Backbone:
């Protein structure tokens, strides 16, 4: 079962481009989590949000509860942003269900 | 450095062998989690703990056991390893249910 769908699966961008990664889910959620997995495998938590918008540096995450959709934006992309970006949703209870990720490559 | 430490980083087991993966955090986090990551699939929750002395089943608990005897440590045990348990295992912790997670660096386990 796929509670979470991410698009695109793969994305290549030129350095400096504005990037958008999308996450859609099919049922009501209580929270949504964006994470970044580096090429070496390490995972970093980026945002946890349940409504509205959050910003940290060049990263912006938005969520539209009615449309069951979230976006992660990267402004002025850089090769060091190359990673897999993962969306996870929390339904009822304590569990998050994770998408399979969007693999981003930023070319100098 | 503060964070989540997983040991070991790599391990090869024969089918039927047992092992324990250790996760240690020094951030006084209440919540701890064990996930597995397989190719083409999202992270899947194996077991989790909401505090010292508590454990609960996640999405894929079969074949695994856990213990949280001390707040800072969360152990994942495989009693009789199977090839289907070949995976990368990640431990994570968080202060609260809706706080960001801190992940360990992962354990790559191969069962032959």
Residues:
């Amino acid at each position: 079962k796929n509670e979470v769908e991410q698009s695109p699966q793969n994305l290549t961008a030129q350095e400096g481009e504005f990037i958008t990664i999308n996450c859609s889910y099919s049922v009501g959620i209580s929270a949504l989590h964006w994470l970044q997995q580096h090429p070496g495998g390490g995972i970093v938590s980026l945002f946890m949000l349940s409504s509205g918008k959050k910003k940290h540096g060049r990263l912006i995450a938005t969520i539209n509860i009615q449309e069951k959709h979230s976006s992660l934006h990267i402004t002025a992309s850089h090769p060091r942003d190359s990673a897999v970006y993962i969306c996870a949703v929390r339904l009822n209870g304590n569990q998050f269900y994770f998408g399979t990720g969007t693999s981003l490559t930023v070319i100098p | 450095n503060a964070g989540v430490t997983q040991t070991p980083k790599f391990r090869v087991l024969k089918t039927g062998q047992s092992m324990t993966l250790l996760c240690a955090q020094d951030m006084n986090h209440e919540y701890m989690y064990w996930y597995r990551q397989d190719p083409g699939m999202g992270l899947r929750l194996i077991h989790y703990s909401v505090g010292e002395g508590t454990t609960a089943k996640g999405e894929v608990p079969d074949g695994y056991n856990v213990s949280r005897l001390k707040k800072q440590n969360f152990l994942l045990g495989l009693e009789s390893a199977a090839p289907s348990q070949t995976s990368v295992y990640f431990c994570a912790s968080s202060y609260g249910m809706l706080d960001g997670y801190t992940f360990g660096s992962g354990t790559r386990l191969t069962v032959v």
User: Anything to note?
Assistant: The first strand of chain B starts at residue 4 and ends at 7.
